[in-house]
# Entry
Amino acid sequence: MSQKELLKVKNLKQYFPIKGGIFGRTVNNVKAVDDISFTVNEGETVSVVGESGCGKSTTGRAILRLDNPTDGTVEFDGVNLLDLNKKEMRKMRKDMQIIFQDPYASLNPRQTVRETLREAMAIQNVVPKEERGDRIAELLETVGLQPYHADRYPHEFSGGQRQRIGIARALSVDPKLIVCDEAVSALDVSIQAQVLNLLKKFQKEMNLTYLFISHDLGVVRHISDRVIVMYLGKIVEVGDKKSIFENPQHPYTKALLSAIPVPDPDHNKDRIFLQGDVPSPIDPPTGCRFHTRCPFATERCKEETPELRSAGYMAEGHQGACHYMELIESGEHQPTRETSNVRMLDEEPEKV
Amino acid sequence: MSTNESILEVTDLRTSFFTEGGEVKAVDGVTFDVPAGKTLGIVGESGSGKSITAMSILQLISHPGKIKGGEIKFRGKNLLDLSEKEMRKIRGNQISMIFQEPMTSLNPTYTVGQQIRESYKIHQGLGKKEGSKRAIEMLKLVGIPSPEKRLDQYPFELSGGMRQRVMIAMALACKPDLLIADEPTTALDVTIQAQILELIKELQDELGMSVVMITHDLGVVAETCDYVAVMYCGKVVEYADVRTLFKNPRHPYTVGLLKSLPRSDRDQEELTPIKGTVPSPDEMPVGCRFAPRCPFATNLCHEKLPSLDDVGDGEQIRCWIYTDEWNGDPGVKVYEPERTTEG
Ligand SMILES: Nc1ncnc2c1ncn2[C@@H]1O[C@H](COP(=O)(O)OP(=O)(O)OP(=O)(O)O)[C@@H](O)[C@H]1O
Ligand SMILES: Nc1ncnc2c1ncn2[C@@H]1O[C@H](COP(=O)(O)OP(=O)(O)OP(=O)(O)O)[C@@H](O)[C@H]1O
Ligand code: SF4
Ligand SMILES: [Mg+2]
Ligand SMILES: [Mg+2]
# Structure
């Protein structure tokens, strides 16, 4: 795998203002993504995982500038996307495509598949006009559909087939990067496996780069080279797949992995139960954002924000944002909270 | 399950929807047992008839749907023989259900307290004061912080995880003998799912309930169930104890599902998807419903529907391969333990 950095995100922030009062002034912000940095190399798959609302989709949207980021830089192929004007950005989109969870919502219901694909190619002006017909047939075949499907409308397809159309559309402009936002989450496992295999095949054939957003850790383990774990708008851990799954360092990653039900009745589960729910991103907890639920939290965690860092025993590129990684690893720092009881009746921060 | 007494025995249940496009056989001859005190999992892909099976048990099917036939024996009594009035006494009392979408089954205009009290009023004739006392006990039981305060809150004021706990509290209010949980955690994050599943298991032990756990997640099945019924196109295709199902699956569909599943607990070389898609109701195959997607299908499979047969050890399979009539490769190996890069 080449080590060329295709995408370089630095100190990215995406705040959504909350308006209030009679003047509609900004009274507060949803800090959906709050100062994150990472890189994605050409030809690799980097997954973004974390629970609902942690900022995965917002990250994807900010990179493609579907929202306008509050702060930071997004370098793609050496160009800072946040400096581009609309027209320049539109050109750039040829190289950066997105596949959504719900292909139905992203496909025009009044356009046949042929029209959808033709339009995508016309906007980006990628294939000479007279060759577009052949290209459409080729694309459909690539994603496992039949030529006669070209003249059908989105509602005439199953969910899995629609997802293939979404993929065909993304591929039609010959992109470098595809952001897959829960691209297979709505599919039944038998169909999900078909689509995952397709994505892997295209990656190999076209040297595609994926930013793969998902909450399904089985899928993530299958498809990723590296994994980013997010919690409440921050990256809490990043590393190669093996490190994240076999040697997780952040207490949140550990709890998340331990919570996944494994399809093996003999699997021995040492489950870490977290208390309560994820707090609101409007007034996120001070210090380490995980401290309200973390089994290892101390006073220090309430005050000091931990930065992403590595420890000597961790693999290259593996970083976690916890004050106590080494001490937890060595056993010197023990849990400060009960982690095995699901009925603690502890007071949790009120939901907003 | 000859050694184990069953609390629920469903036999050849059939429920259809009569739509403009014709009859949709949503549940098409479903048979399974729920051994007392145990958890039966019902798995299958979207549209396979899991929810309609559950709603048929409680007779919550409304127009244009109709239960066409079969038997639903609860404690030996066929529920399909009961009047609506008698059914009402059973629902929420002896058999309770947690629904797939919590927001549709919690009434948004009533407080949590009002909704739980209602159940005590209907089934036990309790007044407001006694009802509230019991409601607080239930909320405590399911681990809801400051239960007294929650009584006056509306469903929308609660987080997803709390709402699901309230649903469980409501379902368990009258200490049912059987709990039917339809995808109780599908809408929740995995850390919250872990809490809720553990909670159901603990409550089951404390109250001695039997549970029907409906899910499409094979991980949830492996973790929470004792027995499993795998459904495909409105029919049960395999019924086995949970260990047998995962260690020695026999139906080609079950095997296909397991081979399609990306695992979080180990590295996997590749996924082997099931080819094709689930047939739509208007093009339902006449033979084995799985034949068009099955790697082993013969002409027999395409022409004749196999029945759900006992294959020993309490296991049942609906597949020609396990019958004397099988006309394909006699040494066919449906399941071979997969190659993994790591144990
Ligand atoms: N346009 C918006 N205006 C206000 N808040 C928003 C907006 N978009 C997202 N948010 C908020 O930002 C936070 C992050 O949302 P995001 O959609 O990125 O989460 P996610 O990780 O993709 O979650 P999911 O797994 O549910 O898709 C959430 O609290 C969400 O409510
Ligand atoms: N009101 C209705 N009218 C017509 N068909 C219906 C109706 N309700 C359900 N069906 C059909 O019955 C079949 C079984 O539906 P059911 O809801 O039981 O599936 P399920 O296995 O629970 O799926 P899921 O995993 O998506 O919840 C489906 O084909 C569905 O389209
Ligand atoms: S009966 Fe035939 S088609 Fe059906 S599952 Fe068995 S082998 Fe496959
Ligand atoms: Mg999202
Ligand atoms: Mg359902």
Notes: The pocket of magnesium ion (ligand 5) is lined by residues B 50-51, 100, 182 (CB under 6 Å). Residues 249-330 of chain A form one domain.
